[in-house]
Amino acid sequence: MHPLVDAARLEARLGDADLCVLDCSITHQSYDDRPAYGNGRSSWVEGHIPGSQHVDLVGDLSDPTAGIPLMMPPVERFRDAMQAVGVRDGQQIVLYDNNFSMWAARVWWMLRAAGVDAAVLDGGWRTWTREQRPVETGEQAPRATGTLTVSPRPDLFATKDDVLAQLDDDTTCLIDALHPAVFRGDRLDYARPGHIPGARNVSSIHLVDRETHRYLPIPELRERFDAASPDTAERVITYCGGGVAASSAALALTLLGVPRVAVYDGSLNEWSNDPALPMVSGSTEETGRR
After folding, report:
1. Which secondary-structure segment (H or E) carries 26?
2. What CATH class does 4-152 carry?
3. Which of 15, 30, 78, 158 has the highest local Cβ count within 10 Å?
4. Looking at domain 155-271, what is its CATH homologous superfamily?
């Protein structure tokens, strides 16, 4: 299945029994001037793609035992949460959100790591509403539930130890998907400023069109990643603050046909809170912006 689906194609399939549309939106807040996120269900109730269900990335789709926000839960918990909103075998799963498709990309990557195919609505809620496509309001229960078969792919997530090991490994490409100001250390969003040594900054916000929220055309995406040279690496690891923007970068790399991509799940939520782990500041390895 192609990672992206356009709005016209999705609208033509609304109401099909084998279609499952999931709203992955969150609420963006701040706490002590740091990013914080909440359940976006209230926004879904106010307006959503007809027939869609809302998935709670902050609660149901995060590991409550990890001690780190937004970590991928055990695959059984993830499967159960997906089944509860009507995801089952044999469906085309389409994901969207209200924030540059980053959160939809996160769920897309989680499903991929569980061995389940899905696609992200290119442009998400922004494009859907700008094109005046149908909108539904209020609470709706899933039309049907059933069994979802998972086949875990642990190689799609990297751990802290994986990132530590690549610090002295030229065969791995490390990509920081955060805002350039966070990468440089000019803005403190996490416990310590800056980035992991050796990382290249390809901000996820520069991978989509600011107006439509659609992913950039392939030639432009390729330009964004050129300086990082991910296509020549034996493995690519993306990271951000909590594995969300990193998932959008991973989706873009998948569109480019780059193999062996993994998302560092703990990202800076984990790394920056350990003073024994190195971080550096500055812009010498910033790229991906034209």
Report:
1. strand 26-31
2. alpha beta
3. 158
4. Rhodanese-like domain (3.40.250.10)
